[in-house]
Write a structure and sequence with these properties.
alpha/beta; D-Maltodextrin-Binding Protein, domain 2; 10 strands; about 20% strand; globular
Amino acid sequence: MSKQRKLRASVRRLLIATAALAMGVAGNAFAADSITFTAGSPGGGYFKAAAAFGEYIKSDIPGTSVTVIPGGGWANVERLDPASKAADVGVLENALASMAWEGTGPTGKKYDFRMLAAFRQPGAAQAIVLDSVGISTFEELKAKKLPIRITMFERHQLATGQALAILEAYGITAENIESWGGKIIFTSISEAMRMLADGQADMWFTGGSYFPHPQYVKLGAQHPFKLMPVSKEVAAAVGKKFGQDIMEVPVDVYADANGQNPA
């Protein structure tokens, strides 16, 4: 059996929680003895899922070398382009995969790839703010003009673009935040959680993440936070922009993590 057929058989048996795993067609990745995955931020769910998938492939197809490189967002689409020769398999959010396939992304180019697997529970925008900040809504943040330090995924991530779009829908821009004495910090989720725990940041905001997220639960056990609501109007506007549906996160999804102070 060829390596490509073996890999497809492996995918069918692997129930890994990740986004779409797409393969560049022209690269013929699996004819070689090495495969490169472009995933997400180191320490994040996408990166760990791709690494686990890689280990599974190596054990199931002896002699195959698998490398996982940090990535995320539109960069993963570009790396799947055979002309780049940067990666053979990429982890893509469904919205990005659709944009790339239809040619409605930043480059206006249609990308030719094949989906290997699509396993993941739905993700939702989530903004968690430490209780010590003293706010619980975006409207309060805008009215009080606090010098807030907001952490997000790296700048190229789709989830970051979504989070920035939500802020802008509330009339809050990066320039506004800086004029109040605050800042937006683009980083990995693990580093963001450390910064929140160490008092170096006040909020974590992602445009898409599964829930309840274990990283938030761990943070809330020591540092109570609130889950900031997104209005239906804002959710509808941003969802339309990115071609996504509205869903609800239960208001008490992190209540256990916060004890007497439910999110």
